[in-house]
Each structure stands twice: as structure tokens, then as C-alpha cells.
Amino acid sequence: MNNELDMNRIPQHVAIIMDGNGRWATERGKERSYGHQAGVEAVRRITSECTRLGVKYLTLYTFSTENWNRPADEISALMGLVLTSLEDEIFMKNNVRFRVIGDIKRLPAEVQQKLHETEEHTAKNDAMTMVVALSYSSRWEITNAVREIISENPQEITEETITKHLTTSFMPDPDLLIRTGGELRISNYLLWQIAYSELYFCDTYWPDFNEQELHKAIRSFQSRQRRFGKTEAQVEEEVKDEK
């Protein structure tokens, strides 16, 4: 399945904006919650495949702070799905550690409790860390980080101090950001962290995103030269020096 991938250049951190669940369901004459249920199956597929490929961090944009403006019945269905999906054995079967980022205090108490229990239960798993962004927005995260810094030491506001106060401080920045569903925007997701991430957009709705689609995204990533502000010649020289 992965014979076209360079296994020495697998991105260590893949972030995904899982878009298209609602439209996928609507096109099938179903309620939007049906699409979210199908989206959970895609999460299971992609988590297993990322673990197999050697990805170390998988961050999934599950529910944004802006999503609180959606209809109450859809929010309720989504919260129920969070609880159901956390019952899945995929974490232990794949040796995956679970982490959550976001304004968790806004979530229902039972969801908060289940998130905490899952983090504790999977804490020793070390094949991959799956991070779920729930009630998350990048502007909320950065604002919160700045508030913390000012309360501690307002004289020391640097890139490093901001990074340390972000909810993602425990992991490296994404190498690859994937957005499914055909939209070409970032939607307030990891704005600080994706400064030099490679971006990949596809028309496939999230419920239909499978191992083959993931491989397409990784092949696209592997076809690019990551320069981080340097010239092509500088990067090529560094590669020669490493050899």
C-alpha cells in the first residue's frame, strides 16, 4: 500500500481539518449527525494508518469555539459522539497516547471527565500521540497564552515564551496540514504553529478520506523542499553536509 512513499521522509506531525461531514450527509439525504458518525470511522482508519507509517503526532480539529454557534441538537450529537469514540479500543490496540487541547471548561462535565480519563488511561502509550482539538481556536489559544505571560513576567514576551504557553507546547509544530472537503482556508486552526507547515487541500469529504487519500497527501509533502525561509541552494548545501 505504501510502496510509493519514502519511509525515511514521513512527516512527524500531521494536523488535519476534518471538513465535509455535514455536506457528505446532506448529499445522501441524511441528518448532519449521520455525517459526524461516519467521520468517526475515518478517524479510526487514519489513526491506525498514521501509526503504521510512523507518524508521531496526529492533531485533529474536531470542534472549534465558533462551532458553539451551531444548532443545539447538532452540538449535543457531537458531544455524544466524542463520548462514544473515546470508548474505542483504538488507542490501546495501536499504542496511541491521547491528548486534548482547547477551552475544555466549556464542554459538558461528563465529556470533560471522559477526556481526562482517556488521557490518564493512555498516558504510557508511545507509538503515536493523537491530539484532539475540542472547543479550540487559535486566537483563543494565543490570547490565553499572552494573558498567562503578562501575569507571570510581562517583560519576557518572546516567540519562545509564547510557544511555551500554548496548549500545544508538548509537541513539535505540524510538518503537514491537511484540509478535506474542498475549502481553501485555515479556519482559526494552529495559526502560530503552522508558520512553516506544508499545506494540502483536497475535495474529498472527511468520511471518505481513507488510507489512499492520506498517502496522496504525504506524497505531495515528500515532493516539496522545505526551506524555512532559506534559499534552495542553502538547503541543498545543508543536505550535502548531512550526508
Helices and strands, with pairings:
Layout: E1 13-17, H1 21-26, H2 32-53, E2 57-64, H3 72-86, H4 90-93, E3 96-101, H5 109-121, E4 128-136, H6 138-152, H7 159-165, E5 176-179, E6 198-201, H8 211-222, H9 232-242
Parallel strand pairs: 1-2, 1-5, 2-4, 3-4, 5-6
Helix pairs in contact: 2-3, 3-5, 6-7
Report on the structure:
It is a single chain. This protein has 243 residues and is α/β, with parallel strands linked by helices. It is built from 9 helices and 6 strands; from the N terminus they run E-H-H-E-H-H-E-H-E-H-H-E-E-H-H. The chain is globular, with a radius of gyration of 19 Å.
Short description:
The protein has 9 helices and 6 strands; from the N terminus they run E-H-H-E-H-H-E-H-E-H-H-E-E-H-H.
